[in-house]
Amino acid sequence: MSKLDHKKVKEVIKEIFGSNKVSEFVSFASSVNTLWQYEINDEKYMIKILTLPTLNFTL
């Protein structure tokens, strides 16, 4: 996931939790799943984001 995608996810998390205090403290990434840990209002959460890999076809 790109930094722009990350920023969008962070904005959605702020909207869901109704808090301006959302800080990323650990980020893990792989080809299909992305794990992010956030601190929201002094509590830690882990969010798993499923992403689709880019498929390249050759004809």
TrEMBL record:
User: What name does this protein carry?
Assistant: Aminoglycoside phosphotransferase domain-containing protein
